[in-house]
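Limitations
The structure tokens in this dataset are predictions for the assembled complex, not deposited experimental models. Users should treat interface geometry with appropriate caution, especially where small molecules or nucleic acid strands are included. An illustrative entry is reproduced here so readers can see what is and is not provided.
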Amino acid sequence: MSDNTKYTISIYTENNVGLLNRVSAIFLKRHIDILSFSTSQSEIPDVFRFIVVVKMTESGVKKIVQQIEKQIDVIKAFYHTDEETIFQESALYKVKSSSLFEERQIQNMIKDSHANIVTVSPEFFVIEKTGFRHETEALRKSLAPYGLLQFVRSGRISITKEKMGISEILNTFKQQNKD
Amino acid sequence: MKNQETNKISGAEAVIRCLLEEGVDLIYGYPGGAIMPIYDELYKYRDDLRHILTRHEQGATHSAQGYARTSGKVGVAMATSGPGATNLVTGIADAQIDSTPMVCITGQVASHLLGSDAFQETDIIGISTPVTKWSYQITKASEIPEVLAKAFYIARSGRPGPVLIDITKDAQFELFDFAYKKCKAVRSYIPVPSLDITQVESAAEAINQAKKPMIIWGQGVILGEAEEEFKNFVESSGIPAVWTILGLSALPTKHPLNYGMVGMHGNYGPNVLTNECDVLIAVGMRFDDRVTGNLATYAKQAKVIHLEIDPAEISKNVEAHYPVLGNCKESLSKLTSLVKYEDYTEWKQLFADHMQQEIEAVIKNDTQPTKEGLTMGEVIVGINKYTKGDAVIVTDVGQHQMIACRYAEFVKSKSNVTSGGLGTMGFALPAAIGAKMGAEDREVIAIIGDGGYQMTIQELGTIFQNKTAVKIVVLNNDYLGMVRQWQQLFFDKRYASTEMTNPDFVTIAKGYHIEANRVSKREDLDSALKTMLDCDEPYFLEVCVEKEANVFPMIPTGASVSDIRLK
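Predicted assembly:
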């Protein structure tokens, strides 16, 4: 489908056991592939933020966001295109220590890709790289010939350029409840 | 288990106290290991809280649904862990898709056993998540008051729905200081979006310019208790109004502006004219596929006004040019004050013309048959003769359901109880029990096919034990009639597994000490119906109807509403 676009869905939620299941069920019910999913604390105490990346039509993502927002423990949900967000992924690469010393190339790769060495032990060392998908992917490809012992990449984390206004929503609620 | 010194009560007792605080006096359920502490408290509180023992947990949910639908209150169903809980799932899914307020309470294995594959352990929260409005697992007694208060608030507020609360056995035993506070709000939940008056004004403007407007109303009118406001709107605007299956009975059948049903087996005019109207006013309905047929050709010429409480329904299936979010009780009265009356004489004549065609092609044969076999339609018309529309009609799913909804007359709201969205066979018999208990002074008639009847036939035991005076009419054609109809029309009459060899239903009813009768001849029908309706006790009537009759009109799956077939 040519009109499919990559969208980042941001979901602000109450911390509630089972909500992850509820949110993922919305995608499952509609047979939608989740490209990446991450959750963390948000800028507001006791409010969590899910970041879900999907590829679909705008009308489709709009409906998904409506369904997500309908869930009781969801405070607010948004969808954005890549242009509207600042986003990164993090990757870890575990390589045999011997190759770090034997292959000068690796040291250059780390330097050129602005990656960091987070751990070095006699047997292995671990490189960390944060960036866009194509950057972490490029480093994975360059390290592969030297024997990657392990590789892992996080889900996308993303911050929007526009204001989210969650505190305002919560304040309105507080105000209404006072009345 | 009351400890005088500290005023502590058990979690189990707290559950009962919460139910009483919420004004619950009737619950449906089935006991078992993991919910025994609560049942023990039910025994102590038996004078305050009536528990109806159904014969299967699915029956408990459908009874709770039937109760909610006629009483307008939250239905409550209770079951034990494991199979008890999974047996609730069909009823929960049914309540979710038909927006029925229901609270289900399930027992769960003790919290230290969670995840250990303990006896009768099942992840009911995980299983029920996609079909509940909200769910929560309680592992500490102290959570009970707040969570149950929230459960009732969520179930009944906004667009209603089912809530499941799972309570571990240790939390039921645990002692704590009980205090109850009703829930009035949940931070992340806006039950009723506030009405935007500019949306109402734009909608009114569109209506006032319309030449061929049409109203489709759904259950939102009933759930929003907006029947009066709706009637005022229809009468002040003069616009022809048609209904979805769940909207049925919100406006009396004989109201001059009630033009019938939309959807797959709805009336001819309402379907055809959906594709001719210039403004379509949808009130508390959700454009289900059984209503719209092929969306690509559905009401493309019309400006769509959608009065809706659930923002997720706006433009979900049909684009709303004029969305009006909010409770329709409020939005309808605002709208009424802004619309002008029109006669729409020519437009309404089109509805009348189409009805005339339908009468000739379908309705005459259905309701005044000249052929030998009894029709489902004449049974419904026969019932109308005695009830004058003042009965609660509970239907199951299939041909009899469509026929009953097409021909049953209604004078009062909350009188049509059926499984709409989920299409749950087996719904009617237990739902009728709840419907009767939710409206004890009304006649409740369950109309059921021979297939669906046998899916929950065990609830005859509940009817017998509680002397629930429901009237049960089984329209028996020895077939799964609707599936057979599709096989005839779309699968070259390959009747795969649709013919049923049925037992002697009269004997079965009598086995439960329920008065019972069977009719197979036209000349016996009227007196049989009269005898049934004159009876003050539960009564079973089997009507042997024409085996291979079809329900028309019909919109074949994937076809446009305007391609509705009269034969």
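Some entries come with short summary sentences. For this one: Chain A has two domains: 5-86+157-172, 88-153.
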